[in-house]
């Protein structure tokens, strides 16, 4: 996704997508699920594994992951009887690029964020289920 240099230059569709993507991440379970998917890389993770790792019921996970899907920041595919979710790295890089564009006095070389999903993943913190 090609983005212009300022929010004022964005079409309303681009701005709407950015707000939708950020809103989808603005919940502890969705953020935890998304971080797991980023860690998993392009192969993604089965829905049941995500639910178990973040400590939510599978039905609750479905609700949260659907928000991420509608925002266009994750993908899904069926593998036999399982639904596999994966982070959309191009969308993630576009979102992060938008957020940091014009940082560092517009010296883009010093703050260009790009995720290389081929690199080994680091450990993330799983948010415990709230009561």
Automatic annotation (TrEMBL):
Keyword tags: DNA-binding, Transcription, Transcription regulation
InterPro entries: ArsR-like_HTH, HTH_ArsR_DNA-bd_dom, Metal_resp_trans_reg, WH-like_DNA-bd_sf, WH_DNA-bd_sf
Domain of life: Bacteria
Recorded GO MF terms: DNA binding; DNA-binding transcription factor activity
Record-linked Pfam families: HTH_20
Domain HTH arsR-type: 10-107
Protein name: Helix-turn-helix transcriptional regulator
Organism: Acidiphilium acidophilum (Thiobacillus acidophilus)
